[in-house]
Amino acid sequence: ASCLVGSEMCIRDSFDTGDKVIATPTIATLGRVYIGSYNGILYCLDQESGSVIWQFEAYDEIEGSVTLTNNGKLLFGDLGGFLYCLSSENGDLIWEVEAGQRIYSTPALSLNEEFAYFGGFDRKFYSIDVSNGTIVWSYQTSGYLLGSPAVDENNEIYFSASDRKLYKLNSSGELQWTYSTSGCRIGPLEF
């Protein structure tokens, strides 16, 4: 363990993924931690020892966090535009679906966990059937979807896009409203 001088905070363990990690780790029951890396590997680590329990190789870099369902399914996307569903127990692939381009966001779940919602660089927002990976519906925006969506107590979905809008859709994918923001410009990119 290494400690900062004059601090009580210590690093007990660390794990080198071999590439950068941007996502927030997902901590689950049974003492497991799930984290994706830019090397395209999703790791399941033991919370106490930091040792690898299993790992899964995606097609491309993983930037978003993992969503864990109550029945032990892990959902996450990669920058190749694939959304994956794995068994949290052993990392076995349950299904994968190609959904556009670059998925930066962390999927959100419907209240009953039947559907996962996320967006991508193809400017579409998706609803996926969690049981089999089927695309239920998609909603076309005019901006890239980089952030993660939120679902309210009525199963209505909120997300933003680089077109300077906040969207609200119902669970059938129908637009309820948009709110336009002033946005900002960073170099050649407008948000």
Description:
A hairpin with a 5-residue loop joins strand 15 and strand 16. With 191 residues, the chain is mainly β. The strands form six sheets. The chain has a four-stranded antiparallel β-sheet with strand order 3-4-5-6, with no helix packed on it. A four-stranded antiparallel β-sheet has the order 7-8-9-10, with no helix packed on it. The chain has strands at residues 2-3, 10-11, 26-28, 32-36, 41-46, 52-57, 67-68, 73-77, 82-87, 93-98, 108-109, 115-119, 124-129, 135-140, 150-151, 157-161, 165-169, 175-180, 185-186, 189-190. Helices cover 0% and strands 44% of the residues.
Residue-averaged pLDDT, rounded? 88
Biggest beta-sheet profile: 4 strands, antiparallel
Q: Count the helices. How many?
A: 0
Uncertain runs: 1-5
Helical content class: under 10%
Give me some keywords for this one.
disordered N terminus, mainly beta, 4-stranded antiparallel beta sheet, 191 residues
In short:
This protein is mainly β. It is 0% helix and 44% strand. It has a 4-stranded antiparallel beta sheet with strand order 3-4-5-6, with no helix packed on it.
